[in-house]
Amino acid sequence: MVLLTLQGIGKHYRQGELEVQALDGIDLNIEEGEFAALVGPSGSGKTTLLNVIGGLDAPTAGRIQLNGTDITTLKESQLSDFRLFQLGFVFQAYNLVPVLSALENVELVMVLQDRHAKDRRERAEHYLKLVGLEKVMQRRPSALSGGQQQRVAVARALAAGPRLVLADEPTANLDSENATALLDIMHRLSHEEKTTFIFSTHDVRVMERAERIITLRDGKIVSDEGVERHQHETTV
Amino acid sequence: MIGIGDGSHNSMIRNAIKLGEGHLTVQPRGYIEAPANHKYLANGKTLQAKLDALNVAGSVEPRIALQVLASTASNSVGAGLEGLSPGGDERVETLKPQLVDGEWLEAGDERGIFDSRVDELDDYLILSDIQFARYFLIGEGADPELAPVTRFAVFLDAPDNMADWKARLESALESDDVVVLDWQEMMPQLVQFVMVDDAGNYVFLVLILIMVVFGILNTVLMSVLERTREFGLLRALGLSRRQLLLLVFCESLLLSLLAEAIGWLVGGGTHLWFSTHGIDMEALVGGGTAMMGTFMDSVIYTELSWDRVVQLTLIIFAATLSSGIYPALKAARVTPVEALRT
């Protein structure tokens, strides 16, 4: 079942005198439960595409349908609600609130969702256990390693029960071991929780675990392939 | 500061009322516009009976105020002769401790010199027993049997009820050719002085408020700017602009409430201390505390009415709260994409 449909998505902006075409006529369907990677060189439009899908940035052309809702027609407040209940975000720089503990960071989105305190505490603890951080729940981000912080961010994204998790370069700041561990966790949770993941990367390790690789160049999709074929091509 | 201002003003007003003509004055119509010795209340006895019948909560003192020429062998000066009851009159009670030479006047006798600390009074005022002053009215043609006076000074136990008592006196004395004046009408210069001094205090207060507002504005604004990334994150996670605005505004509200609480504790404590222990103004200013025909007590006790406390609390609360509006609007304008880039 198709979860996300992008039709003719364009995004251009001015940079001084220069008109930059960040996205140019993107058409894309993402099935429910997919674990898809957006790849491409820097400036190819990966982050912009994720921002547009996440409603953080508005496209200048095209339509985005997520779970049956055309998010390009939503008002600001509706879009906030949509992000709150339908989407999860994992950022390259973790973006945890420094004054909150790992547990409180995971609870944060559920607080905004107005979930009952007991429910959100249970869910936060559950997801922190799933990402292997049950022993450091009370620690603040400053007392956690980069890999642990990113796992808290994954737990935060999933605990709110989103349909789609968008992760922008989630392993970019992690060493090889932590990156592999994080990807394993994301991949496992994607299947266990039946949550769709789209992440941008130019990390080969990430691409190896992706089930679908969408390659962007100059704001356009230049290839959209399954993993086996991609692996075959890179091997060859 | 306001407490000191109110305390000193009230001290001056209380002393002016005691030294002057009471909270309310009953006197001949037209006297205040053009005082003259021939303007007196010929039938003081009847008026006194009417006033007694009102059972005024306080005291009613008959007085005779005359403009006289005081002469010695070598000099003559214009003076004011005030005839009053030697026992019980508030003015007597106020000036009696200021006797510097001779003895305090007794009925039918006068033989002392007082130093009221108010030069305008000391240069002008002669006190006498009312019976003595009455001879001058008799000279103006008054009938001594009717106990003529020039005015009645009414001292109220509860000055807050002055307007009510004024209305009652006016009603009771409607048929007589008299007017009832309150102390503000009798001493307009003092009222103006208090207003001007209050205005000065308020200007100072406004300057402090401006500094406070900018201080809070700076604090909240810096706190908002420092958390731009966090706000961007919250916006990305689903917090709406309105919620973010409310969040920052609530922070300002809490800051305002905290400031109010600290202000109440510190300001209230300071006021409590000085309202019981007082401030020795003579030691501070090193001289007389007389002005505007009255004087401040040498020790000023801070005074704050509940009205004043509520007024100041609301002003400070509104000022501190309003200083959070701009930072809140600035925070609400944060766009997630730009904020997360910072």
* CATH architecture classification name of chain A: 3-Layer(aba) Sandwich
CA-atom Rg of chain B in angstroms: 30 Å
Reading side by side through the largest sheet of chain B, how are the strands ordered? Answer: 6-3-2-7-1-8
Detail the poorly predicted runs of chain B.
none
Helix content of chain A: 25-40%
Q: What are the secondary-structure elements of chain B, in order, as H or E?
A: HEHEEHEEHEHEHEHHHHEHEEEHHH
**How big is the Rg of chain A?**
18 Å
Shape of chain A: globular
Biggest sheet descriptor of chain A: 6 strands, mixed
Shape of chain B: elongated
What is the chains' assembly state? heterodimer
Describe this protein's structure.
The complex is a heterodimer of chains A (236) and B (342). Chain A is α/β, with parallel strands linked by helices and 236 residues long. Chain A is 38% helix and 29% strand. Chain A is built from 8 helices and 10 strands. In chain A, the strands form 2 sheets. In chain A, strands 6-7-8-3-9-10 form a 6-stranded mixed sheet. In chain A, helix 6 links the parallel strand 7 (164-168) and strand 8. In chain A, helix 3 (102-112) runs parallel beside helix 5, helix 4 crosses helix 5 and helix 5 (146-159) runs parallel beside helix 6. Chain B has 2 domains: 21-186, no CATH class; 190-341, no CATH class. Chain B has 14 helices and 12 strands. In chain B, the strands form 4 sheets. In chain B, strands 6-3-2-7-1-8 form a 6-stranded mixed sheet. A two-stranded antiparallel ribbon of chain B has the order 4-5. In chain B, a hairpin with a 4-residue loop joins strand 2 (58-71) and strand 3. Chain B starts with a helix and ends with a helix. The model of chain B has no long low-confidence stretch (mean pLDDT 81). The chains are: A alpha/beta (236), B alpha+beta (342). Chain A binds chain B through residues 51, 54, 56-57, 76-77, 80-85, 87, 89, 91, 93, 95, 97, 108-109, 112-113, and chain B through 229-230, 233-243, 336-337, 340.
